[in-house]
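Changelog note: in this version the structure field was regenerated for every chain. One regenerated record is shown below for reference.
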Amino acid sequence: MTTVDRFMAANDKPRQTGTCDCDAQSGCEQAHIAGAVAVPSSTRRQFLAASAAVGASLAAGTACNDPAFQAYFQKHYLQLTEADKKRIFERLEKEVEQTKGVRVKISDPRPLPNVQFAYALNLSVCNGNRRCVEACARENNLPDDPQIRYIRVVELDNVTHHLERGNVYYDHEKVPEPGKYYLPVQCHQCKNPPCVKACPTKATWKEPDGIVVIDYNWCIGCRYCQAACPYHARRFNFAKPNVKPDKINPDQGYLSNRLRPMGVVEKCTFCLHRTRKGRYPACLEACPTGARKFGDLNDPNSEIRKILWEKRVYVLKEELGTEPRFFYFYDD
């Protein structure tokens, strides 16, 4: 048992509720508030003793060599040096090989200078086949048990734009269904992201190229960001993700598709481990109808700029002021 395990075991006792079982003569100093009883003083003594043990172990250097300890007390991504990253990436790669039997390579591609990524989706040709959904899942190491998907495809009646009337669980033999159209939704990489403002630990932030990222090691799982997102674009790992070894993508980005632990929030990152290297997102490459378009808003010759200039373009929930970098359009 590691020092951290001993520390957690010493303090992993449930808080008592209801009737206090301490002796009235024992000098219990805590008042009963709303039917709850404070942890007895013996537990406080255990906490202090365990804290002293952790301190002693740190001084001796034993706990620092434990991978779980290193991950828990890891610095924020923005404070990591290149030496820190090298050590962390090697540790993560080793963990995957030991637990999954798969050799992976974790990289950290940085934002390209003077680039602002954006996405556009042609609703005139999207037919709801969901190949983008599964391509995203395989590229980003999303689990099937429990199932997590970054992209939701909403089926809507041709006469409405009300998302609350849409159906994300359609299961037709063939698509498109007559009288329907399909609206894929994922992270919109907002210019004014409410999720970033909601995070109490600064675990999520906006990068210079417009992509909103998450430091999974600093996410505490409070899900404030998930509640703040008006596009239902963030996912929470309620259980340990189970990605089968034969479905693991070994090309991994530290801030994107590396294997995530239980208890953290994750989302689409425009496949930054691909797009920052000059490639398209996996969902775009998988689309059989050509509905998906991706590019640099700062490039006047890019396809995305041409679409914004020439097509009837709109964004979801414009009135909220989030300024999404994900646009929808129709053919003329």
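Spot check on this record: The domain at 117-330 is CATH 3.30.70.20 (Alpha-Beta Plaits). The CA atoms of residues 203 and 215 lie 5 Å apart.
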